[in-house]
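Review form for a predicted model. The reviewer records the input and the model, then writes brief findings.
Reviewer: anonymous (R2)
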Amino acid sequence: MNLDARLTLARPGFASAALEGLTRAERFEAAREMRVIVPAASIRAVPRLDAEQVDQLLFGEIFETLDLEEGFAWGQAARDGYVGWVEAAALSPRLLEPTHRVRALRAFAFAEPSIKSPARGPFSLNALVRVGELDGRLAFVEDAGWIARTHLAEIGDGFEAMADVAERFLGTPYLWGGRDSLGIDCSGLVQQASYAAGRACPRDTDQQAARGASVAPADLCRGDLVFWWGHVGMMLDGERLLHANAHHMAVAIEPLAEAMARIAANGGGQPTAYRRV
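Model under review:
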């Protein structure tokens, strides 16, 4: 069996106990669930602050940790399965069942139940939080602070259409491996829009291209996805494409025909798939 290295918590001689019988290793151990306690944490390719960011974790998400090395935890994101290294200081063994998620593109948490008190954040769309005490327009979130109740939605409620969510990221800077409101890449944008619509979604474009059903280019409509090798965008209607891209270095809207011409001219070829999810 060929296991996808991006999603396989194993390295030479050492692997997660969940993989016993699926891969060879000298030692198998059970991963320990840890919770993200910072607004966003990078998942890096190797345990160094200057290493490539391959993915991101948001506040409240679970990182299944198998090893610690030089201040970094090696493990796997529970939400999308990505494997890598996260700063250990960003994680806590104290697990809290989330009651809400952040529904605003970004939200601040205040030290006191007053919007004039010091703020922490921002906490991005789809962060997972546990709400306790309520005080007027604010809700107390464990390990964060007081967040505006209008910026939160109960788990399983308040979903939006994918394209409506994605459009809210317009102008967000492009960031390789990013999936928060301060920096995002093309597949991160699709993933975040999917989560806010109440749908599971893998992390990378090749994985996302396997979802849904094929659609003819002439039949493209709002919410459909257009894939190239290593890139994805979302249609806002039959002609306009919204995508996080390195040409604009931001989430931008442009005619699909213009994007296709530019990508082809830069050696990216023609779209590889048109999908409706």
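Findings: The radius of gyration is 20 Å.
Further findings: The mean pLDDT is 97.
Recommendation: see findings above.
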